[in-house]
Design brief:
Length: 381
């Protein structure tokens, strides 16, 4: 009976153990101390397909776009790991930036309770808050590396900017337009007391903005307009496109001007002038950032690819057969080495015994030209 009970116990234990067995994901690439798995690549492909569908592709067009773009999935994952690793090597401190970004997202979502915000993140992203935070951190780390190591080193001389400007003056002819931000304090459904409260709030926001608080942040936290998540940013307006009372209040004002509360049908509007472009040819100083961007883009992509190629050349990389890194560094050896195929060293019994004797002898016989005294001085003359 004891034997039968023991046997049944072993069978039950084996059954539990078998039930707990999980299929291990296949490693397809090693990047220094990190790995890339087949499931990761499949997940990336699924996200790519979802994005292409959101862009309106389907059927044969979707299949073709997916086939073309999926060839670079492994390359992009290797790129990401190399940049993250470089950021850690450079000891870049981004935790404060990550915390600020998450706080901004929470403020825009208008969810004060931390647990409710975590649930909101899970619902919006489909991943636990901790994973979302780690992904955000990695994204910001790669951006910092790119900015510090690549884009920040792309510089242009004043004559380069002027040459481009002179060759593209037609692109800088413009209509008179004004660029604005808004804060709306709603009065919809409010009684007389509510109207008074809304007006006091609007006046307080004006005072805060004029004292130097960032209008964009005030809009995110306080505006009832649809533009609040974008910091109150509105589309550019030409003459005659704004409500008359708003146009009269802002059209002749300089950049940075903040209006008094303006009563509109659904509340009180507070407007800040961001920019006012006059009609005609914009000066180089006015469009310098645009010119710089036009010159920057053609240089950025090859510069980044060259940097990632250098990171590959310095990295330990192994890629399984059947998987292709379309950003591979020329001449870089990335052949996969299967540990199961590494043959152990074979030795004879006589070699083992001989090694044992040598270790024993070295333990009692001093090595020549070294002294055995405690002072540690050399015995050679």
């Amino acid at each position: 009976m004891l034997y039968r009970a023991t046997l049944l116990g072993l069978v039950a234990a084996f059954a539990v153990s078998a039930a707990d067995v999980t299929v291990m994901d296949e490693i397809v690439c090693k990047v220094n101390g990190d790995i890339i798995t087949r499931d990761e690549l499949g997940h990336s492909r699924k996200l790519m397909e979802d994005e292409l569908r959101r862009q309106g592709l389907n059927g044969a067009r979707l299949a073709e776009a997916l086939n073309v773009n999926s060839k670079n999935i492994l390359r992009e994952r290797i790129d990401q790991l190399l940049l993250i690793q470089k950021g850690k090597e450079l000891d870049l401190k981004i935790d404060p930036e990550v915390a600020k970004q998450i706080a901004d997202i929470q403020r825009k979502a208008k969810i004060a309770d931390p647990e409710k915000f975590r649930q909101f993140v899970r619902e919006q992203t489909g991943m636990p808050f901790e994973d979302y935070r780690d992904d955000l951190k990695n994204q910001m780390l790669t951006q910092r590396v790119i900015r510090q190591e690549v884009s920040g080193k792309i510089q242009f001389k004043k004559e380069d900017l002027k040459a481009y400007y002179d060759a593209h003056k037609d692109d800088f002819m413009r209509q008179e337009r004004i660029f604005l931000r808004e804060i709306l304090v709603s009065t919809e459904g409010k009684d007389a007391a509510g109207l008074a409260t809304a007006e006091r709030k609007a006046k307080d926001l004006v005072a805060r903005a004029r004292k130097g608080e960032k209008f964009q942040e005030l809009a995110i936290s306080n505006s009832d307009a649809a533009t609040a998540p974008q910091g109150g940013e509105m589309p550019p307006f030409e003459k005659g496109q704004l409500l008359a009372q708003i146009e009269d209040a802002v059209w002749t004002k300089d950049r940075g001007y903040v209006t008094d509360p303006i009563k509109v049908a659904n509340g009180f509007e507070i407007i800040r002038v961001e920019e006012h472009n006059k009609a005609g040819l914009a000066s180089l100083e006015e469009v310098e950032s645009v010119v710089t961007e036009q010159l920057f883009q053609p240089r950025m992509e090859p510069a980044l690819r060259a940097y990632l190629t250098k990171l590959r050349q310095d990295a330990f990389l192994e890629i399984k057969p059947g998987y292709d890194d379309t950003g591979a560094a020329p001449g870089k050896e990335t052949a996969w080495v299967d540990p199961a195929q590494i043959k152990p060293e074979t030795v004879t019994k006589e070699e083992v015994a001989s090694r044992g004797r040598r270790r024993h002898l070295f333990g009692v016989i001093p090595v020549p030209v070294t002294s055995t005294n405690k002072a540690g001085t050399s015995s050679s003359q």
